[in-house]
């Protein structure tokens, strides 16, 4: 699975993380794994959303068989 990170998440994880032979049942499982991997990012991750196939999904969405996930922090525009 490839996990791509945006904005301030790049400071913690870099632009992307590739996990060979690793899958997550849900988005919540993924976020928990990421928080355990980089505890300093835990608060930021709690505010993030995940996207699959260019659409946001909920944390209880099934991620089995998904090859790429985007993790996006909150943003504001103008």
Low-confidence parts: none
The CATH superfamily bears the name: Beta-grasp domain
Q: Terminal Cα separation, in Å? A: 33 Å
Radius of gyration: 12 Å
CATH architecture: Roll
State the strand order across the main sheet: 2-1-5-3-4
Tell me the helix content: 10-25%
Mean pLDDT: 90
Biggest sheet, in brief? 5 strands, mixed
What's the structural domain tally? 1
> SSE string, helix = H, strand = E?
EHEHHEEE
| SS strand fraction | 15-25%
What is the count of β-strands? 5
- The outline comes out as globular
Instruction: Decide which structural class fits the backbone.
Output: alpha+beta
**DSSP helical segment count:** 3
CATH topology tier name: Ubiquitin-like (UB roll)
What is the class in the CATH system?
A: Alpha Beta
Structure, briefly:
The chain is 24% helix and 24% strand.
Question: How are the SSEs ordered, and which strands pair?
Answer:
Blueprint: E1 2-5, H1 10-13, E2 16-18, H2 27-37, H3 42-45, E3 49-52, E4 55-57, E5 68-72
Parallel strand pairs: 1-5
Antiparallel strand pairs: 1-2, 3-4, 3-5
């Amino acid at each position: 699975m490839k996990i791509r990170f945006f904005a301030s998440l790049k400071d913690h994880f870099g632009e992307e993380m590739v996990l060979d032979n690793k899958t997550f049942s849900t988005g919540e499982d993924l976020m928990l794994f990421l928080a355990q991997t980089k505890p300093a990012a835990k608060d930021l991750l709690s505010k993030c959303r995940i996207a699959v196939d260019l659409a946001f999904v909920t944390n209880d969405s099934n991620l089995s068989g998904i090859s790429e996930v985007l993790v996006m922090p909150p943003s504001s525009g103008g």
